[in-house]
Amino acid sequence: MSSPKSQGTALVTGASSGIGAVYAERLAARGFDLLLVARDQERLESAASKLRDKHGVQIEVLKADLTQREDVLKLEQRLRNDSGISLLVNNAGVAVNGLLANADPDQLENLIQLNVTTLTRLASAAAAAFTKAGRGTIINIASVVALFPERFNATYSASKAYVLSLTQSLNTELEGTGVKVQAVLPGVTRTEIWARSGFDASGIPAEMVMEAGEMVDAALSGLDQGELVTIPSLPDAGEWQAFVAARHVMAPNLSHSSAASRYK
């Protein structure tokens, strides 16, 4: 049952801490009921209790490990079948530290499962349900390393480039359906992800590290402004527009029947 004047239900993954927890608070303040998903049931319940008291919205918590197929399938079916859900924040993700050559393959597979496979399945389910309803919003949390992969390790950077590409393509697929899509590309944000990955963030200059609250507020402002891609740290939107324009300049020459003369 929705709250009076509810904006619908926002499903937030990775909602127990960091960026996901801030999204939960901000969306509750906007009048959304919430379905909060994470592995830590105790933290979810604590956050939910505070948000109910503060904002008077309906909140459901769902303990799920989104690296596990069974839990992903359950959440996917919930998205497809619950017509009250009107917004998905695809936030759950993990980072790893170290070189690809030295990495634990199982750890990399876990990252790809969460950052790529789970995100894709949930986005697909949301796209289907929201298209049927003629409304809805899908927010995919990527990273600026999608644009500058040399600055971080290969697998994490590649996973976030995938999120950006998926969002851009999905936006074209959903044109005219009433469904909004946004990719958010944070820079370094003060969350628990760094400690969990074993990365020592203490050496990062303070002027490069954004608080999660400021990041989410900027991302939601970008959503309100209709941005497909929001880069909270970027002062001049024209730089992003120039980056996109450069792609379109190349587009007519990316597929021809013969190789370029420089290869002959």
TrEMBL record:
GO molecular function: oxidoreductase activity
Keyword Oxidoreductase set for record: yes
Alphabetic keyword roster: Oxidoreductase
Gene3D superfamilies in UniProt: NAD(P)-binding Rossmann-like Domain
Domain Ketoreductase: 8-184
SMART domains per record: PKS_KR
Keyword Chaperone: no
One Pfam family it belongs to: adh_short
Record InterPro entries: KR_dom, NAD(P)-bd_dom_sf, SDR_fam
Similarity comment: Belongs to the short-chain dehydrogenases/reductases (SDR) family.
Protein name as annotated: SDR family oxidoreductase
Native organism: Pseudomonas kribbensis
